[in-house]
Amino acid sequence: MQTRFLSLLCLLTATAIPATAQMGPPIPAGKTYYAAEVVGVYQDSADLDAGGDVSIHRLGFKFGAIRGLEDGSSIGGGLSYTMFGYSFEGVPAVGGFSPWEDIDQMQVSLQYRYAIDRESSLFLMPSLTSTGESGADFSDTIEFGAIFGYTKTFSRELTLGIGGGAFYGLEDTSGFPVIFVYWQMSENWRLSNPFRPGPSGPAGLEFVYTGLTGWEIGFGGGYRVNRFALNDVGPAPDGFGQNEGAAAFVRASRDFENGGSLDLYVGTVVGGELELEDSSGRLLARTDYDPSLLLALAYTQRW
After folding, report:
1. How many domains does the chain have?
2. Around Cβ 152, how many Cβ atoms within 10 Å?
3. Is 141 part of any domain?
4. 20 assigned to some structural domain
5. What domain range includes position 27?
6. What is the pLDDT of residue 6?
7. Which of 108, 141, 82, 128 is nearest to 15 (CA)?
8. Could you report the per-residue pLDDT of 45-69, keeping only the tens digit for each?
9. What is the pTM of this model?
10. Environment class of 116 (CB within 10 Å of its CB; exposed 0-12, middle 13-18, buried 19+)
């Protein structure tokens, strides 16, 4: 068993519905909200400790819906597809690290919020995800599990929550804590989970400045783990790969009157590490990679 303290609220990246739906005011009974999202992320070339370098790009599409129920509860779900493109260059023929190419991820998820009262609620967010290289055995790419927790609104300025997640699949079992924060520290500053789409997803924490007309600026970061199944070609046939690291970023965001929003990111990835495992999950190789430039662009449309 491997315990991974990864993406806080990672499942909400698949719903494309604002994560504040789990922490904000109740959705009116009978009212349904929809959202669609596209996000592109480019991670510039980074030197590998094993020799050579790697660059990564990501393109994702998501659609979700959420409907208000009686007594402040709600139910929703989402579908998403993400392509992770890996490019290894200058890797030594012997002892180098170039084990996979593009990775495809598809996810279906649900979310249910039960309102205990006007200030407190419980939530459950199960998901089923397939993440693997083209040609990988589909049964090896499956991961399923859920995130669950409790949130409480203390005032208009402060909402806190705690919970956990458990997932099984990809020759791994993982469990991790979940922390929810929304704190309006002053008129123009807040501390919260980064709920908008971007390089870390709704994982980690960010400080947000809202004193600019039409724009808000965020400073934050989050730790991510991306694990996937490999095909039967390469140094680890039917094995598994993993990419993890911490993304630190500056975000500029603008909301439009038509319900759309634009997010621009500049940042870096630190503590990056790639791992290669055999079909039984036994570690075959590991290499760190240097910090690299991170750029991201996302657009969300809500209606």
Report:
1. 1
2. 16
3. yes
4. yes
5. 10-302
6. 38
7. 108
8. 999 999 999 999 999 999 999 999 9
9. 0.86
10. middle
